[in-house]
Amino acid sequence: MARMHKIPQNVTTYEGKVIGRFTAKQFIFLAIGAIAIFLVISIPLPKVVKIVLGIIFGLISLIFALANFQGRTTDVWISSFLKGVNSATQLIWRKSYYPPMYLLPDYHPPKMERGPRKRSTNELERFIQLYQPPPESSDYSPEENEVLQRLREMKKQGGTA
Q1: CA–CA gap between residue 131 and residue 81 (Å, rounded)
Q2: What's the rounded mean pLDDT across residues 85-110?
Q3: Quick one: pLDDT at residue 10?
Q4: Which residue among 137, 150, 152, 154 is least enclosed by CB atoms within 10 Å?
C-alpha cells in the first residue's frame, strides 16, 4: 500500500540549513563580519582601536545573523524602516478640470468590427492565383493521354470501358 506524505504548504519561505543550524543568509552575514574583523586587525592601528572596531563589527554581524524580532530578521526590519522613512506619508489629490472621456454622459465606446476584415478584389485575385493548382503536367506518353481522354469522355457519358 502506498504511503501518504504530508506536503509542506510554505515551500517558498523555507530556508535550508547550510552549516550547522545556520542558513545561507546567516552564514553570509557571519562571513562578512569575520572578513571585516580580519581587515581591522590587519590594518596598522593602535591595539585599542583594533579591539573596539573588532567588537563592533562582530556584534553587528551577530545581530544581523542571529537576531529575529517577531519572525523577521534584522535586515528585513532595517529595509522596512528605510522604505517607510523614504516613502510619502501624505498624498495630495489634485483635481483635474476635465474628466476623462469615458466618464462624460454622451460617451459611446467605439464599435469593434467583428468577423473577417473586408478584402479588396485585388487581394482576393492574388490569393486565388496563389492557390490555383498548377497546370496538369503529365508523365504519360501521347498514346496514354489519348486513352485517358477517351476514358474520361466515356465516364461523362455514363458508359463503361
Answers
A1: 68
A2: 82
A3: 66
A4: 137
